[in-house]
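Hi everyone,

Forwarding the result from last night's run.
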Amino acid sequence: IESKTVFEIHPPLARLLFTKAASIVPFHATILPLPLKANASFGDFPYIAVRLFVAFFGVLLPLLLYATGRLSGYMPRIAMIPALFVIFDNAFIVYSRLILPDTILLFFGLLGFMAALLAAKSGAGKGWFFVILAGCALGLAVATKWTALGLFSVVIIVFFLARMYREIIVCALLVGIVYAAVFVPFLSYFPQGGKIDPVFSIYNVPWITELEFPKTHDPKTIASFL
C-alpha cells in the first residue's frame, strides 16, 4: 500500500515501534479517514499484538521504580510504594488499551534516570557505561515525546550536583544523536513524497498544509526540508 505523509505532533519512535509490533501479525493495511467515528471499522488491525507490546513496557515500570528507590537509599518497603502505585494506577491500563506511547516514554525516561543515579554513585570520570546508557535511554525517551526533556533536565541536575561536568556534555550529545538517528528510518517510509496531510482540522493551517515532503531522500534534501 502507498504510504501517506501526515502531520504528527510527536517524534516518530513510538510509531515506528508500533509498526514493527503490528507487522508480527499479518494484516491488510488500510488508510482510515480521520477523525475516526465510534462505529468505524478498523479492519483486521492486530490490536492484541500492539497492546501486548505496550503492556510489556508497563510490566517493567514497577521494577524500574523499585530499583530507582533502592538506588536512592530507601528501604525495600519504602521503595515498593511507588512501584505499587504504578501497578494499581488505572491510567497505565488506559495507556495500554488505547495504544498510547506514554508507557514507552516513561520506561526509557526512568531507565535513563536510574542509569544516571548509578553513574553518579560511581563518581566523576567513572561509570561511563551508565552515562552512555543514560544518554541513549533519554534520547529514545525524547524521540517518543518531547515531555521527556523534563527527565533529561533532572538527570543534568544529578550530574551537576555530582560535579560530573564531562558526563553532562556526553549525555547531552548522545540524546541529540539518538533523537536524530530515529528519524532516519522514519523518513524512509515516504519514497513518493508529496503534500502533508494535516489529519485534524486543528492542524489545517498554512505552515503545515504548504509543506511538501521531498521525493529524493539524500541527506542534503531532507536536512533542507527539516
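The mean pLDDT is 86.

Cheers,
N.
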